[in-house]
Amino acid sequence: MIRQPHFKAVFYHVSSLPQLIDLSSLPEIPCPCGTARRAFADRDDYPGTVHLTQISIDAKRHYHKKQAEIYIVLECDAGASIELDGSLHPVAPMTAVMIPPGVRHRAVGQMRVLILCTPNFDPSDEHFD
Predict the structure, then answer these.
(1) Which CATH architecture has domain 46-125?
(2) Using CA of residue 120, residue 37, residue 114, residue 66, what is the dihedral sign?
(3) First to last CA, the chain
């Protein structure tokens, strides 16, 4: 007998109403990386959030068990990098970094990034070793 893979289908009903947000107008919220301005967290009809994050020099290594993130570097110090599971990778403006769940990560050096998080950001899914 051939076993067929079992897939769990996930369907999202995306609202037909578009939404525009000025990210710079959102409140800054402290996070392990520095401060974040989080958009679309209140949208249950969309499977992700967008964060404009100012990363401080003392960003804390952390990971997520459920969330995947994509960091898009907008601005950064010379010599900035991102640490992924203990390995440093240099970054520059317009670098994109995909971080799957479970990967320990932190930014090294000051930078401004746009983070795409899926599923919706959940502060209880920030873990530290």
Answers:
(1) Sandwich (2.60)
(2) negative
(3) 43
Q: Name the β-bridge partners of 57.
A: none
- Tell me: the pLDDT tens digits for 21-33? 999 999 999 998 8
Q: What is the pLDDT of residues 52-109, one digit of tens each?
A: 999 998 899 999 999 999 999 999 999 999 999 999 999 999 999 999 999 999 999 9
Q: What pTM did the predictor assign?
A: 0.84
| Structural domain boundaries in the chain | 46-125
Hey, what are 41's tokens? Answer: 């967290």
Cα gap 87→105, rounded to integer Å? 9
DSSP state of 80: -
